[in-house]
Amino acid sequence: MHPLRRSACLYTALLLTACASGSTSAPSTAPPELRRGVEGTERVVQRGNDVTSIVAAQRTEVWLALQTILTDLRITPTTVSPSEGRLFADGFRLLRLADRRASAYVDCGTGLNGPVADDSTVLANLRIVVSDHVGGGTEVALQVDAEARPRGGIEGLRSCTSTGRMEDLVFQMLGERLSGPA
């Protein structure tokens, strides 16, 4: 066998072996639960992509505070349904929020110039659901995700995941707003 052909065969066999050695473990059915402390809330629990907190305040008071918070952050809601407790801002352009770049809030991977979120057009979704909590108070559930289209348009859309900072920011602002002036 010709030495060049032997090298090609060896390379192909090595490549096939490496591809076949991937993990076959089944994904977990329930995402792990993380507890995070955010000042101004009783507890914040993250389960997968959802971040939930129980707030010691009436639902209407929490609802009005959340609307004001979105206004302060310059995020325009696309769905406002007080009866269903839904306050959604889908497809808002995320460039900077509270003096931080997009990459502080969403992870879209890393490119040649650093975080993709900072070198792309990022369209984010913030979904807030407010409901009465069985044990008293109000339950607030937040979910953040996004898509990034790198500038220049060569690459397609990239899915982005939340870093948790936007949720923490909203819960911190909510705690401050509900506690009133110091």
Question: What would you say this structure looks like, in words?
Answer:
The protein is of the alpha+beta class and 182 residues long. Helix content is 26%, strand content 37%. The strands form three sheets. Strands 1, 2, 3, 4, 5, 8, 11, 12 and 13 form a nine-stranded antiparallel β-sheet that branches. Strands 6-7 form a two-stranded antiparallel sheet. A hairpin with a 2-residue loop joins β9 and β10. The model is unreliable at 2-41 (pLDDT under 50).
Characteristic key phrases:
182 residues, alpha+beta, two-stranded antiparallel ribbon, 3 helices, 13 strands, 26% helix
Radius of gyration: 22 Å
Ranges where pLDDT stays below 50 over 5 or more residues in a row are 2-41
C-alpha end-to-end distance: 83 Å
Q: Per DSSP, what share of the residues sits in E-state strands of 2 or more residues?
A: 35-45%
Oligomer: single chain
The count of DSSP E runs of length 2 or more, i.e. the number of strands, is: 13
Bin the helical content: 25-40%
Largest sheet: 9 strands, antiparallel
Structural class determined from secondary elements: alpha+beta
Q: How many separate helices? A: 3
Elements, N to C (H/E): HEEEHEEEEEEEEEEH
